[in-house]
Amino acid sequence: MRSTGLKTIKPGKRALAAAAMGVGLLAATTACSATSPQQTTHQYAASDGVNAQFADLKIRNAMVVSDGEKNPGRLLGTIFNGSASDVVVTVNGAEGSQTQVRVKANNEVSLDAGDPAVLSTTGAKPGALVDLKFSGEGQNLTVQVPVLDGTIKEYRPFLPTPSPTATHATATPMPTATESAK
């Protein structure tokens, strides 16, 4: 018989070679995350609103819901007060519109519950950004906040209703049941 020149590999070396190939394959398939950015380390506003922070106040998911630039707009979001004292946060919008929100010490206020924080004039069309100046604890911050309308059904209940205007209506008496039976 003729020899082919191949040597026989011992079983221990064969196992070592298989383990080395397994480690190499594992490293090759999992190392891609070492160079790819991780989305969980990037902070962003995960909803339609924006986030901001100044002093001990954190504003989360802030947005204005309105059906027009010159119409009232309701401020939505949450304001967190990390200070040891109560704070009144003043929000100034377009054309002198203003609203205030009282936030107790080490507490939060969700603006979609309770008394609505309404600006008399939105100052931007739905789909645009409006500058709102948040003031509290002797500091202030201007934030560009998105204006949304009732296109998304979850925001429809938050659209401010226009204030009633005085009208001069005349009442027409309706016939009573006994009069209409005659």
UniProtKB/TrEMBL annotation:
Residue stretches of biased makeup (Low complexity): 164-182
Keyword Signal applies: yes
Region annotation Disordered: where it falls in the sequence: 160-182
Signal sequence coordinates: 1-33
Entry keyword set: Signal
Domain of life of the source: Bacteria
Keyword Signal: yes
Listed name of the protein: Lipoprotein
